[in-house]
Amino acid sequence: MVPVIYAVSDAAGDTGEAVVRAAAVQFYPQPVEIRRVPFLQDKQGIKRLVDEVAAGGGLIVFTLVVSELREYLLELCERRRIPAVDLLGPIVSALEQALNRSALREPGMNHKLDADYFRKMEAVEFAVKYDDGRDFNGILQADIVLIGVSRTSKTPLSMYLAHKMFKVANVPLVPEISLPEQLFTAPSRKIVGLRIDPIKLNRIRSERLKALGLPGSAMYANAERIARELDYADSVMKRIGCIVIDVSDKAVEETASLIIEAYGK
């Protein structure tokens, strides 16, 4: 049977599901079914959930901030011998002691429409508008400018950084296309060059061609063409004098963390 994990929350449930997925990946390729149960804010709903899990089996992982609901869920789970993991309770209690003050215990605080929320939405809109060199005017307005050859994760990185409230523009480096003047007038400290291993890039581009139903022998994945593009990209990055990050074996989150660290410095 596929193990079922219920990610329970009195709000949207993003946090609980993200933690469960991060833990479950350590057991790959063991399949795990995650069922998100959001906005559970009364005892009747909790009882129905516990009855369902008791009948079908499973594990409950929860992020309930209201003490009464947390205690009620734990009580029912203990009575029905259902394993339950409290993700937020111990952390909130520890912070209450460290800060010498009581927590608000209010569900949904992560999703309140505050200034950060609007900054994030503005950054996402910026990343979409100035993606893939659509409008070079974004180079001077951006907090961070990503440059690199095709398939170096420029767009995913732009969107990830946008959710961290950075305005990001990205510019593809193609030998046959002239570079915008803004790339050399913008401060080099905010430009990040993305480098990648040629063999890795060849594999990524070949897979991309297959996904599009095109032959893997197309020039896009040609080894000589890739070598020429990478040499060109290196010369551009050297001319600009920007920071360069090798993304060959890095996840988007890891590369983004390095970019944010460099930006902070």
Helical fraction: 40-55%
Q: How does the helix and strand content classify structurally? A: alpha/beta
**Mean of pLDDT:** 92
Write down the domain tally: 2
Low-confidence stretches: none
Distance between the termini: 50 Å
Task: Kindly provide the radius of gyration, computed on alpha-carbon positions and rounded to a whole number of angstroms.
Answer: 24 Å
Main sheet strand line-up: 2-1-3-4
By DSSP, the count of extended strands is 8
- What is the CATH first-level class name of the largest domain? Alpha Beta
Order of helices and strands: EHEHEHEHHHEHEHEHHEH
Walkthrough of the structure:
The chain is an alpha/beta fold and 265 residues long. The protein has two domains: 4-111, Rossmann fold (3-Layer(aba) Sandwich); 115-264, Rossmann fold. The chain contains eleven helices and eight strands. The strands form two sheets. It has a four-stranded parallel β-sheet, with helices on both faces. The protein has a four-stranded parallel β-sheet with strand order 6-5-7-8, sandwiched between helices. β1, α1 and β2 (33-37) form a beta-alpha-beta unit. α5 (115-129) packs antiparallel against α7, α7 crosses α11 (252-264) and α9 packs across α10. The longest helix has 18 residues, at 223-240. The chain starts with a strand and ends with a helix. The mean pLDDT is 92.
